[in-house]
């Protein structure tokens, strides 16, 4: 696929947590501008397809926020979500993400099953969160609420000050689905998993990458698949980068996967093309291995 000039450049920084003070201040200022609808800084959503192992087709997408700066650079969330959480700007940011995600879902209604959105603990702890989601859904009467999936992390749930199970239960009453993100990186207490009203478990990529060559990872994955299934939950494997991992997951009975193997997160126009073209795993494999026509 030809790359358009200019756009879609992803600026890569290190993972060093000791971000210099000036950089933090700059990040905060940029975020403030973006949230104030300063057109020089925007917060577009990128979309990563989720693919069914049964059909090889796109069944949904995860919306992942980006920040486009005045210079046209695109920043990954690692560069501003932390600041957004610390300053409380995650609340308006999160609302923007939800609204934009639902707008896109409405636009892609005939092609896309669902959209999932990441929700930070701070958002979930807001007294207004559930009413806000309800009001938003009411604005889109043609979108069935079950087509919206909210992703929360285990660690977020544990550290929260509010009764998260109760809040998730209220969201479920709206018809929204809930996914446990990065599953396996937190405590993963089995009792606790049972008590959480989640519909989907997203297996963290640390268990997924290289699983085809690692019997221990394969065992963990089988166990989680079995457990999730027994509790009536579905499973999505994250971070599937290799064809061998895709095959291993499919054979293990994992219903859906997400990862660079199929596609990186894409800006909306590129995701749109992929969706409308009906791109399948077979198409991706054929183009990767030089086109078996
Ligand atoms: P996440 O929700 O676990 O999202 C998956 C991350 O893994 C994304 O990074 C995605 O680009 C990356 N990824 C997907 N497939 C692969 C793969 O095959 N290999 C590898 N190595 N990575 C893969 P991204 O977009 O940089 O987002 C990072 C995190 O930022 C997300 O992790 C999520 O926790 C957070 N985030 C993103 N958007 C939002 C948002 O709108 N609100 C909130 N609160 N958090 C967000
Ligand atoms: Mg703006
Ligand atoms: Mg996520
Ligand atoms: Mg994740």
UniProtKB/TrEMBL annotation:
EAL domain location is 24-279
Lineage, top-rank taxon, reads Bacteria
Q: What is this protein called?
A: PAS domain S-box-containing protein/diguanylate cyclase (GGDEF)-like protein
Parent protein range shown? 457 to 749 of 760
């Amino acid at each position: 696929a030809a790359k358009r000039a200019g756009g879609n450049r992803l600026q890569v920084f290190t993972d060093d947590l000791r971000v210099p003070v000036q950089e933090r201040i700059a990040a905060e200022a940029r975020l403030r501008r973006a949230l104030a609808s300063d057109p020089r800084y925007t917060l577009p959503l990128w979309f990563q397809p989720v693919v069914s192992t049964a059909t090889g087709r796109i069944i949904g997408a995860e919306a992942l926020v980006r920040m486009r700066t005045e210079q046209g650079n695109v920043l990954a969330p690692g560069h501003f979500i932390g600041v957004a959480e610390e300053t409380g700007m995650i609340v308006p940011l999160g609302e923007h993400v939800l609204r934009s995600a639902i707008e896109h879902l409405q636009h892609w209604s005939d092609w896309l099953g669902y959209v999932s959105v990441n929700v930070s603990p701070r958002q979930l702890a807001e007294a207004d969160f559930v009413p806000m989601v309800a009001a938003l859904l009411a604005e889109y009467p043609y979108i069935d609420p079950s087509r919206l999936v909210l992703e929360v992390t285990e660690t977020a749930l544990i550290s929260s000050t509010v009764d998260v199970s109760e809040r998730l239960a209220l969201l479920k009453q709206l018809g929204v689905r809930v996914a446990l993100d990065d599953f396996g990186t937190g405590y993963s207490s089995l009792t606790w998993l049972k008590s959480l009203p989640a519909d989907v478990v997203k297996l963290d990529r640390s268990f997924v990458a290289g699983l085809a060559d690692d019997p221990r990872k394969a065992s963990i994955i089988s166990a989680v698949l079995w457990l999730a299934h027994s509790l009536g939950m579905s499973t999505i494997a994250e971070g599937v980068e290799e064809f061998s991992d895709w095959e291993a997951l499919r054979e293990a009975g994992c219903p859906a996967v997400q990862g660079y193997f199929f596609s990186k997160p894409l800006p909306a126009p590129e995701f749109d093309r992929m969706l409308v073209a009906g791109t399948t795993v077979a198409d991706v494999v054929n183009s990767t291995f030089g086109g078996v026509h």
